[in-house]
Amino acid sequence: MDKNMSETLVRTGPGTAMGNLMRRYWVPILLVSEIAEPDCPPVRVQILGEKLLAFRDSDGNAALIDEFCSHRGVSLYFGRNEENGIRCSYHGLKFDRNGNCVEVPSAPQACNHMSITAYPCIERAGIVWAYMGPKDKQPTPPDLEWCNLPADHVFVSKRLQESNYLQAMEGGIDTSHVSYVHRYEVDEDPMHQGTKALDYIKADGNVIFEIEKQPFGLTLFGRRNGEPDSYYWRITQYLFPWYTLIPPFGDHSLAGHVWVPIDDHTCWAWSINFRPDRPLSEEEMNDLNAGKGIHCEYEPGTFRPRANKDNDYLIDRQAQKDKRAYSGVFGFAMQDASLQESMGPIQDHSKEKLLPTDRAIVMARRMLYEAATALQVDTDPPAIDADQQRVRAAGALLPRDQKPQEWAVIHLLDGKGQPIYSI
Ligand code: FES
Ligand SMILES: [Fe+2]
């Protein structure tokens, strides 16, 4: 990838082309549980390179404001969350959830010009989302299936990834790596084991991809031999600008990710499991809370994984030899993150030599780049309209002469009312 395109894609701070594009969508900011109660302690969050402060005001509204006081730049993290606003501890200026300065004790007349940045917030799927773009362009709330299910049908986690968002997200789009780094994990993991899908995946390692450009992003069709008269298709969705939907295994829950830049060197990897048809069972919840499936265990009191770059992700060379862990690292999330972080905080794209299996990420890069540059001349970004977000991922056995694209148009594009297709 050439330098200009790479720089455009990886930089997401204020004023950058990609940063402007991402700011046109609702952005997952933090877990609702991090600001659970009215007047709870505020939480520092950095998103798209901006240092911000999240809190819940006395009326119970989630709020996201500039971290720093407009007076002399003190962090409002050290302020008091009281009576519908944050009061700076230094000289007592107070800001409400809209960023308005509502009190300047020493000079009440100065209030009007002391306001700070604030972003509107909504809560969906246990996540506080903010809209960080131009005020007159605020889209309708996200309508991905997992965003609007009853609370007990969805499990959401986030983990810190110490790399640029792009190389993290590309792992979600590049499904060809599953046959390697995750090869043994699928047999042990409670959210994958014992499914017919694994028989097909193992019997046919030579997956053939067909990729379809969509108004919302990309659909990836991965073909393996199924029964003598059928193919097993794994159908993955990529949605602008940072969502992936993963095909399910057997009767296990559906899943997806969101990859959100913190700054250019770190991102949040959000991981979601959901059941459209029923609440998650106690057993499923126990596994999810224990960091199974696409989730992970943490360093206590943080969202940094317990297996991280400072301990070489707890690599176990014996497990590598014994074929219990392909790379020696355990867990889907850390298998991916270890390799993606090993590229460096921002992969040097001038040195990569892409292969045919990289076609999907090449297309995703190109679409993001085109959307970001088109926005500079005022062309609205793709898939802002929530109507375009109702797609589903699936695993399906289809007759060998059936085109999966035609099947997907009928069964997955407005997937919400459909049965779950999973093998
Ligand atoms: S720095 Fe915040 S009130 Fe003075
Ligand atoms: Fe992976």
Give the low-pLDDT segments.
none
The radius of gyration over CA amounts to 22 Å
User: What is the second-level CATH architecture of the largest domain?
Assistant: Alpha-Beta Complex
Could you tell me which ligands this complex binds, including any ions or cofactors?
Answer: FE2/S2 (inorganic) cluster, fe (ii) ion
How much helical structure, as a percent, in the residues? 10-25%
Task: Please give the count of helices.
Answer: 10
Q: How many individual domains?
A: 2
Largest sheet: 8 strands, antiparallel
Order of helices and strands: HHEEEEEEEEEEEEHHHEEEEEEHHHHEH
- The backbone outline, from C-alpha atoms, is globular
Please, could you describe this protein's structure?
Pfam families: LigXa_C (PF19301), Rieske (PF00355). This is Rieske (2Fe-2S) domain-containing protein. One of its GO terms (molecular function) is 2 iron, 2 sulfur cluster binding. It comes from Caballeronia udeis. Keywords: 2Fe-2S, Iron, Iron-sulfur, Metal-binding, Oxidoreductase. This protein is of the alpha+beta class and 423 residues long. It folds into 2 domains: 26-131, Rieske [2Fe-2S] iron-sulphur domain (Rieske Iron-sulfur Protein, 3-layer Sandwich), CATH 2.102.10; 145-413, Naphthalene 1,2-dioxygenase Alpha Subunit, Chain A, domain 1. It has 10 helices and 19 strands. The strands form 4 sheets. Strands 12, 13, 14, 15, 16, 17, 18 and 19 form an 8-stranded antiparallel β-sheet that branches. A 4-stranded antiparallel β-sheet has the order 2-3-4-9, with no helix packed on it. Strand 16 and strand 17 form a beta hairpin. The longest helix has 18 residues, at 359-376. The model has no long low-confidence stretch (mean pLDDT 96). Fe (ii) ion binds at residues 171, 177, 182, 332, 336.
